[in-house]
């Protein structure tokens, strides 16, 4: 499927060339559209979830709560995908699209260029979705993003959507940040501890990140929770305590 997307990328080159002569107008439109915040998209995302639903209404409960504009869009796509019973397919299609963006600077620039007229964006996305044989849910969703000038956020939305699909499968992703990789024994112990906290019926998957700026210790993030046990944070707490006036 990723190959189908790549085959549609020449269309992006033609679009980029066709708009190169409108640089002054493009800059003006770009400045005008810079101000709206992504968080304002909640109404549009709710409308999309409703519009994409099949005739027979089905109640869908989100496995986790997501916030912000990207979270709203991802939640709307999750609801529509569950109602159409194409959750795994939509997840795969979004991943293919993100990979195509990473491999094609032209395609990536096209999705971020707010000066491209909405109807041009919509036509291009329709053509790409048709060539890639995307599901109707994914195609409709991408068209909504194109109409609202939100294609530039597709990577963030895809990550949020992945969080929802993992939660749907009972998988809880935990991220641990340390100054150096955890030894296998400590990683296993941490995973077991998190499993006890999260409880039965769910599976923990652990992702390690390296960040020398925390100085030592670790920071664990999962299920919208953050446990900061880094030396950097402890040092800041100690500094604040030392700066407080002493009362006799």
UniProtKB/TrEMBL annotation:
GO terms for molecular function: proton-transporting ATP synthase activity, rotational mechanism. PANTHER family: ATP SYNTHASE DELTA CHAIN. One of its GO terms (cellular component) is membrane. It comes from Linum trigynum. Gene3D superfamilies: N-terminal domain of the delta subunit of the F1F0-ATP synthase. This is ATP synthase subunit O, mitochondrial. It holds the Pfam family OSCP. The keyword Ion transport applies. Belongs to the ATPase delta chain family. It is found in: Membrane. The lineage of its organism: Eukaryota, Viridiplantae, Streptophyta, Embryophyta, Tracheophyta. Keywords: ATP synthesis, Hydrogen ion transport, Ion transport, Membrane, Transport. F-type ATPases have 2 components, CF(1) - the catalytic core - and CF(0) - the membrane proton channel. CF(1) has five subunits: alpha(3), beta(3), gamma(1), delta(1), epsilon(1). CF(0) has three main subunits: a, b and c.
């Amino acid at each position: 499927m990723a190959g189908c997307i790549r085959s549609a990328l020449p269309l992006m080159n033609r679009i980029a060339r066709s708009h190169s002569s409108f640089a002054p107008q493009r800059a003006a439109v770009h400045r005008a559209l810079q101000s709206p915040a992504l968080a304002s998209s909640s109404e549009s995302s709710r409308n999309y979830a409703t519009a994409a639903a099949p005739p027979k209404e089905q109640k869908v409960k989100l496995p986790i709560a997501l916030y912000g504009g990207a979270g709203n869009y991802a939640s709307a796509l999750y609801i529509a995908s569950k109602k159409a019973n194409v959750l795994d397919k939509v997840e795969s299609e979004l991943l293919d699209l993100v990979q195509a963006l990473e491999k094609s600077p032209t395609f990536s620039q096209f999705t971020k260029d707010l000066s491209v007229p909405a109807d041009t964006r919509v036509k291009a996305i329709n053509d790409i979705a048709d060539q890639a044989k995307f599901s109707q849910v994914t195609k409709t969703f991408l068209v909504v993003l194109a109409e609202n000038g939100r294609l530039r956020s597709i990577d963030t939305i895809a990550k949020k959507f992945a969080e929802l699909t993992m939660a749907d499968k009972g998988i809880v992703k935990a991220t641990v940040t340390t100054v150096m990789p955890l030894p296998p024994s400590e990683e296993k112990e941490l995973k077991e501890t998190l499993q006890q906290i999260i409880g039965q019926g769910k599976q923990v998957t652990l992702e390690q990140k390296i960040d020398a700026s925390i100085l030592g210790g670790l920071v664990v993030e999962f299920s919208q929770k953050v446990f900061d046990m880094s030396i950097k944070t402890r040092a800041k707490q100690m500094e604040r305590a030392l700066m407080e006036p002493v009362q006799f």
